[in-house]
Amino acid sequence: MTFMVNLIYDSEYKGYVVEVPGLKGCMSQGKTVESALKNIKEAIQLFLETEEVHLNEKEFSVLTTLVEV
What average pLDDT does this structure show over 14-24? Predict the structure, then answer.
């Protein structure tokens, strides 16, 4: 399975916060991009096990776009 994730640098934490828009509330973090991605993979697996999400029965729709200000 493949999920889109958002990586956001947090200057207070001095690392990356990562969230999965398709799985509400599924987040993790890491001091480097690599560790954040490793941690979110584990978080996704645990999320799916805990929430007993049946992905074949659900349809996820995530829209990513740019906004000019």
Answer: 92
